[in-house]
Amino acid sequence: xxxxxSGAMCAPAGCYLQGAKPLGxxxxxxxxxxxxxVPMTDVLATxxxxxxxxxxxxxxxxxxxxxxxxxxxRFRSKGPARHHLGCxxxxxxxxxxxxxxxxxxxxxxxxxxxxVSAYNEMLSAHVPYGEYLEPIKAAAKEMGMTAxxxxxxPAMCDGVTQGYPGMxxxxxxxxxxxxxxAIALSHDMFDxxxxxxxxxxxxxxxxxxxxxxxxxxxxFIPAGPMTPGxxxxxxxxxxxxFAEGKVGRKELxxxxxxxxxxxxxxxxxxxxxxxxxxxxxxxxxxxxxxFINPYTPLRDALTRAHVHQLARITRDQSVTLxxxxxxxxxxxxxxxxxxxxxSTNHAMHVVAIARAAGVQINWQxxxxxxxxxxxxxxxxxxxxxxxxRFQAVGGMGFLIRELRHAGLLHDDVKTIMGExxxxxxxxxxxxxxGELVWREAPIESLDDSVLRPMGRPxxxxxxxxxxxxxxGRSVIKISAVKPEHRKVVAPAVVFHNQAELQDAFxxxxxxxxxxxxVRFQGPKACGMPELHKLTPPLGVLQDRGFKVALVxxxxxxxxxxxxxxxxxxxxxxxxxxxxxxxxxxxxIELDAESGSLQLLVSDEVLASRTPAQCDLNEVHYxxxxxxxxxxxxxxxxxxxxxxxxxx
Length: 647
Prior knowledge:
single chain, 647 residues, alpha/beta, Glucose Oxidase, domain 1, 8-stranded mixed β-sheet, 4-stranded parallel β-sheet, 24 helices, 13% strand, globular, iron, 4Fe-4S, gluconate utilization, IlvD/EDD_N
């Protein structure tokens, strides 16, 4: 590894790295060039529209946020946490440690850092974490501290389980991960903690669990995306040709294998990479560290620097997780989601994370923020570029600088850098003669087909919208949907699972204008699986000139594509939702521009109908699904985070 380098916390006189070059001058002294002719020396006042949304969220959250902070404050301790344990308890806690660590843990005053890891070999993104523990321990030792593996959490790959029984446990795995995180940290041996996780439900689960220990300083350490493989355009073409029967499974597998070809995060901008964006813009990663490839000297240096920075804020007790995750940092995360056209899964995950911190947000908040945040990125599936290209042309540093300068981010927040808001997050890391340094991110995008400045966005508003109407409330990701496809009025064709739609497509029964209604896919019914296998056939039909759309109480997530899809329908069919009253041939109007979703059937006719029934036994048993019955019975609404926790 490179020399003794790390991140640093922000002191009043400036922000400097111990053993490394300065991360940058204090924010008030930054003197930057211009962007689109606008001086960028100062951060503009927060946009009044964002202020209004923020104030209503703060007011709505007053009681729950106060209750959360009161709970957290009860567990603040002075001195190492382990010193409050009895001798027998402590002896169990360090029984397997080496002699030096035993002495430090038994008698020393230095903090002990806990590691919660989602490492396994089923997720390419998490494979690098298999080599993290010893370097983490070494980095902690360099700071005069100890580190221990606190515990592991389960981590499933949605890419493996798509369309199969395991997907019906996917969303609930988030809450299982949250509970597993709590178990890992429950030993109360730790003064600070680091969470190792990347993918879909894993980061939200780790965050929810970690927030129960909000009195601790906690950092998230990224692992980075795999290097580029087969282009996204070629991959999408292979999937569509397979759906049309023009290529076989052998050709499809070859294309998929060339796309997902090594350790690291999948390179498209799905939920995994949206998670990583979220952690950086909320201040849980070191600046510019999110999209650095694994197994590189820079990645190794950044991992070490994360540990050093955690050690500093733990030793100085300068910033805790509860102080980082606030109403304003949650809103910053939502701003990033909209500006990048990120995963629709976060219409639930951000809500659940916020609620774990006592912050009450809803889909109207997300939609209103989307209305004022320009779409600045085109990353697959919203474009052809992958996250490596995004990183190369300017990345998070460029994005955050543009949003911050425009007053569309709250700068009065804490991060793992301590005080100073997001001032350091306009910078990116480099190795200079083996030494870790930070420099200003590019002032101009190096490819405006991927990343654009505020003055020339791809669209004047973000990628997510709330749809409301007599069917219920749902969300739609419009950043990948062309304007001419955003309004569809067509008769319903009703299905009770995605396999039924695929079979109808293969039989040639869907060569027409229609809106597919796929119901009994909500969290209460079967765990709310992602329905990605619907994208290729619906995409084929749209390309053939038919007007098609999807309405479902299931999910489509970060890979939501070019088809207008009203997803996460609430209330779901099994919860007496109107979606359960729709019949084949009913006219439906989906208008993503106006935010309307209407079943064009009179109230009198709807009142005369009996809700549809669906035998769900087949999806409730086998492959472990029977174990999740208590979660299906207690899960809340999608708009409330689809969580089993009652905040």
